[in-house]
Specification:
Oligomer: single chain
Number of strands: 5
Distance between the termini: 43 Å
Strand content: 5-15%
Strand order of the largest sheet: 2-1-3-4-5
Shape: elongated
CATH architecture of the domain at 10-94: Roll
CATH class of the domain at 10-94: Alpha Beta
Structural class: alpha+beta
Length: 130
Amino acid sequence: MKPPVTSVRLDKWLWAVRVYKTRALATAACRKGWVEIDGHAAKASHDVRLGETIVARTDVMTRTVKAVALLEQRVGAALVANYAEDLTPASEYAKRPEPSLGPPVFRPPGAGRPTKKERRALEQFLDSEE
């Protein structure tokens, strides 16, 4: 039997409770200053403690969660409530965009592949939306 977990890195915990899809995204968010613990910017290596309130900005919304228990491995969505209490206001969930069914950028039929210049402009445009 495994001993109980006493400390977990912040990026690993955020990934395990499904705030971010990958641990790399959680680490990048910490590096960008999008993750705060009790009002202070947090590093990815911060050890999560029980009862801490974590505010994490994702693409569109800002999620607020409270650490109820520690875990190192990702769990199913139904079990997340055992480890994290969701304190996110309902107004944040309303910010979620409707899924787009069309292409992200219009390109006339028959125009061929984008040139390197067009591709770079498109990538810059898509990065600026974050």
